[in-house]
Amino acid sequence: MIKRDRRKKLFVLGIIPARGGSKGIKRKNLEMICGKPLIYWSIVAAKKSKLLDRFVVSTEDKKIKNVAKRFGAEVLDRPPYLAADSSTTISVLQHILNNDIDADIVVLLQPTSPIRDGTLIDKCISTFLEKQPDVLATGFRTYQYGWGENQNVPRQKLKGWFYDDGNIYVFKASNVKKGIWCGGKKYPMIIDKICNFEIDDEIDFSIVEMLMKK
Predict the structure, then answer these.
(1) What residue ranges of the chain have pLDDT lower than 70?
(2) Do strands 36-37 and 74-77 pair parallel, antiparallel, or not at all (unpaired)?
(3) Taking Cα atoms as reference points, which of 111, 76, 79, 82 lies closest to residue 97?
(4) d(CA 125, CA 31)
């Protein structure tokens, strides 16, 4: 359990992972959306947060590094072996925590979810501190199942299940250091539907840009 020490404030670290490689869209994190590079929106949201003590961008790409710095982000160089298609997000987070950054809480902000702001980040952090889970994830309740699994049961009678949308994750830093992604106690945080959209391909880009413009 994470305990509040009145003498010491818990240190909350935000991490924006932004590698240069991408199978779907080359250098996706630099693709323009609403007139700004995709990564810009996560940096701006992190800067507006009142509960993040520090945030960093992790990348192996020089161009992404320069763009992130231009928008006011601190950048930590990522080793190329952690920027491969097979690299896991938890290994990237571990690399940052092993880089002499002493954090109690880690907040993951993936650039592929640009519809978020500092208020949402702070709401997730506050909820994490209140509920004391091992990990908090944003998402939504879905009623989509594999075809034929429910034998045409009406949607109203289905329980549904929580789907993490990739927008925000909040972890205990101690679990991240051990390579634990979820832990025993998970807190699913349902957020506004407009924030659930994640960019994986060009069609997603078009949909999210339309929503952002509105």
Answers:
(1) 1-8, 23-24
(2) unpaired
(3) 76
(4) 29
Whole-number Å distance between alpha carbons of 97 and 154:
47
Strand-pair partners of 13: 54, 106
Residues in the chain: 214
Per-residue pLDDT, 4 = 44
The conformational region for residue 208 under phi > 0 = left, psi -120 to 50 = alpha, else beta, is alpha
Q: pLDDT tens digits for 144-161?
A: 988 888 888 888 888 899
Helix, strand, coil fractions of the chain, as percent rounded to 5: 35, 25, 40
pTM of the model: 0.93
CB 127 within 8 A of CB 136: yes
